[in-house]
Amino acid sequence: MSTIIPTHPTAATESAWAPPAESLFRMSLDQYEAMVASGVFSRGDRLHLIRGLLVAKMTQNTPHSTADLLCGDALERTIPPGWHVRPAKPIRIAGQASKPEPDRSVARGEIRDYSRHDPDPGDVALVVEVADSRLREARDLAGVYGGSGIAVYWIVNLVDRQVEVYSDPFQGGYRSRVEFKPGQAIPVVIASQQVGTITVDDVLP
Predict the structure, then answer these.
(1) Whether residue 39 is found in the same domain as residue 103
(2) Which single residue of 25, 30, 45, 83 could bond 41 by disulfide (Cβ 3.0 to 4.6 Å)?
(3) Max Cα separation, the chain?
């Protein structure tokens, strides 16, 4: 008969150990796509590939879901013909071994244009992430999106109730960040042209 020995839970602050970066397994984008195609991941596995590492995607709480849907509706009303809004669909960033799935992205062409391949950064004019508990992670993704050349990145920041707009991409991220508060209008820029505005209040829950 086995004996159960009670133990005291250890607080996270008491054990800050994490594996060193060099011991983590990194995979290529091709390896990741092969795993997805083979069915290794189930529908419940909310993962995406960021810089060669599998990263858990944020579980959406109610405010997050509401902001995501509001943002999608606002973009649908604003973007010009020849573009479409994609909800939580992959962008293939080969140069960074990444395949993120932003909450919203605006891609060139029509939905069926991507029946056999995912858009790459050259196909994408704008990406949007909604962030609350993982705001820091959303800001870190600016390095991925900007480093790949995606022109504009929005963070719908539910913590501070603002929308952060990143633009002027370079290898390390974005050179420009502007914060828009409630009552202000955000310019929607597609292919270097302002095509309309969306107010902050339109996308906050």
Answers:
(1) no
(2) 45
(3) 73
Residue 144 lies in a domain: yes
Mind giving me the DSSP string for the chain? Answer: ---PPP-PPPPGGG------GGGS----HHHHHHHHHHT-S-TT--EEEETTEEEEPPPP-HHHHHHHHHHHHHHHHHSPTTEEEEES----BGGGTBB---SEEEEES-GGGGSSS---GGGEEEEEEEESTTHHHHHHHHHHHHHTT-SEEEEEETTTTEEEEEEEEETTEEEEEEEE-TT-EEEEEETTEEEEEEEHHHH--
73-106 tens-digit pLDDT: 999 999 999 999 999 999 999 888 888 999 999 9
Same-domain check for residues 24 and 122: no
Residue corresponding to tokens 């091709």: 30
Q: Residue type for 200, please?
A: V
Q: How many domains does the chain have?
A: 2
Q: What is the pTM of this model?
A: 0.80
Same domain as 65, residue 48: no
